[in-house]
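Tutorial sheet, problem 5. The two components below are modelled jointly, 605 residues in total.
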Amino acid sequence: MARRRGRAARDGVRSLGLLLLFCLLVAATLWSVATGSTRIPLATVWDAVSSFDGSREHLLIVMIRLPRVLAAVLAGSALAVSGAVMQAVTNNPLASPGLLGINAGASFAVVLVITLFGAGSGGTFIWVAFGGAALAALLVHVLGSFGAAGQSTIGIVIAGAVVASFLTALTSAVLIFDQNTLDAVRLWTAGSVSGRTMTQNASVAPYILAGLSAGLLLARHLAILSLGREAARSLGQNQAVWRTASIVVVILLAGGAVALAGPIGFVGLVVPHIVRLAIGVDYRWILPFSAIGGAFLVVVADLAGRLIFHSQDFPVGVTTALFGAPFFLWLARNRAGRPA
Amino acid sequence: MPEDEHTVPAKLVAQDVAIAYGDHRIVADLDLLLPERRFTALIGPNGSGKSTILRSLAGLKAPSPGSILLDGRSIETLSTREMARRVGVLLQGPVAPDGLTVRDLVQHGRYPHRSLFGRWSEGDQSACDEALMLTGMTTLADATLETLSGGQRQRAWIAMTLAQHGDVLLLDEPTTYLDLAHQIELMNLITILVRDHGKTVVAVLHDLNQAARYADHIVLLKGGKIRAAGPPYDVISQEAIAEVFGVRSLVIRDPVAGTPLCIPL
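Model answer (structure tokens):
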């Protein structure tokens, strides 16, 4: 009985932690909306949502700042959860949509389509982004299963690095040769939530929300996947079904995030790790904590970038990389080679 | 318990089995009978196909041609899930995510018994409690795996396979990397599982004398073929050791256990 109580208490602490993190996210979101070229008091932010009067400040909030912060929330939670899912599926602590080239695949596909056919709406980009993400996932899978070390920790990371840098180089090449591509696209390839519209958010949100819900339903099966392919199979897990389901979730989430905000790096790697260090390896908790933690990180990084560099256009992807790179080094030194 | 293998029904059977990885054929024309409620040791030099055969028995590597029968039925006709309910498998060097506790791991053993989004049941709980008790891991249940010694970690993984509630356990080199005390502890655990809980245990072992002392049935392999199979005294002989391992030896009677003891010359 003491043990049962122990578990209930642990879950209680976790629920409280999740609630606290959610409150932090709400606070960061409000701060972000209040901050910009003109400071707007929180009371006005509230008025703009509850009783919109068409004033310049209200327009600024509803048309510019809320869509921006909402894009940060959506992209952040999608990237963090897709990272957590990937780390379980590959049984590899270094897996993330950024490092394994999924983000690069989605953004290359989007840039290519914009260059060839001109800028369209967010609604068409999302399918292009899904296609690019899926293609990159397939490439990494094929390259990673070559050789005796097939699907090993190092094999898949090398394959991911190759695919990511190759696709990023292709993206740069396309942008260099096509002088007409909008600056907005260049900014987007660095990972940016600046200038997002509510329409863009609305066209991507359903896919990201579907991906997040499916991810939560997968939690128990992810825990089994994270034991490795053969152990999972000998526990009776149908590998084809659950691996495919997980990869579809990853593509929905990473593709959706990239279509909305470009390839924001390091969120998918860093957030699940911090969550695991804080609350342990229970995927039923890792996923919700990652969702809210990822949203919080991107909102704060976007806010910090604007505050530190005094530019409303400063790409959030640069800020997450500035903080994420040192964390990655620490991770590679201390934890590489051990399973996720 | 030396006993004529023909008096004991076979739990697992490999029928005319060949196993290859790509073009590399490892096992050919293998016919293997594994007696029910007995501890069988697979022994042989490196590359003799022991681990490959174990993988095949576990349904992790399909033979071609040939078939593996469990209780007389081809395992190809069993779903992965049904197989996991009946056979527990522990391969070499399993790795769990950092921070996983023994209890978390053992609970994973209930995976094949739970429905798609089914809740944790009393039956699941008692199976886990029993597995922890049998392996002596009850007091360590809340420890994380990376803080345990090699022997404790191995017992935690065995507890997971016990929670599956199958009547067959397949273990690939379970004593490798364990110190002597932990090796003996593990062999005693296997003996208890076989004698008191009716399990059929098949283990790949490296130590000839360990196999001779603890196993009821020994399968001696060389180059993917069976050189000898039967009770220890029928299998472990100076001629067989010389032929299979290329080592001259003296086989005497173990003064303590009465089993064959091989002393290399």
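Marking note: The first strand of chain B starts at residue 10 and ends at 21. Full credit if you identified this.
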